[in-house]
Amino acid sequence: MLEYHVTARRLDSHGSEAEAKQARIVLDTDMAGRADAFNPAEMLLASLAACLLKGAERVTPMLAFDMRGIEISLHGTRQDSPPKMLRIAYDIVVETDETDQRLALLHRNLRKYGTISNTLAEATELVGTIRRKA
Predict the structure, then answer these.
(1) Separation CA 16–CA 55 (nearest Å)
(2) What are the backbone angles phi and psi of residue 38, rounded to the nearest 5°?
(3) How distant, in Å, are the alpha carbons of 14, 17, 85, 97, 106 from that of 57?
(4) What is the three-class DSSP state of 3?
(5) How much is the pLDDT for 134?
(6) Number of C-alpha atoms within 13 angstroms, CB side, residue 134?
(7) Model confidence pLDDT, tens digit, residues 93-128
């Protein structure tokens, strides 16, 4: 079983920071918002993106899948009361010459073996597409 450890602290009324290992991320915890940091909902979406990207790095060698690049766009829909993420939609764009069937296989593997994607799929509607870069 793997375990993770993150610490976070308030810097001032405009922001906070989180640390893990030797990395540090500035967090948008300002009530007015700030453009130079991720707010908590954006961090959630970024975590899903990182999960899918890391999954691609893990499964492409196992599938002998030729991938030259990958980009992910995400959109979260949040309700106000009670505050929660109702739906997360993503679009994965892969630069590849692989067939549509192999692209679908990659997508199945990304969804099946992702820690964050599996966790979020249990908590909210998680939908996504995968397509070849034009």
Answers:
(1) 29
(2) -80, 135
(3) 35, 28, 27, 17, 11
(4) coil
(5) 87
(6) 0
(7) 999 999 999 999 999 999 999 999 999 999 999 999
Residue of 99, 93, 52 whose CA lies nearest to 69: 93
* Mean pLDDT, rounded, of the chain: 97
Residue type, 6: V
Of 48, 20, 46, 45, the closest CA to residue 116 belongs to 48
* Owner of token pair 């829909």: 77
**Rounded CA separation 6/17 (Å):** 10
d(CA 14, CA 38): 12
How many residues in total does the chain contain?
Answer: 134
- The phi and psi torsions of 109 (rounded to 5 degrees) equal -70, -40
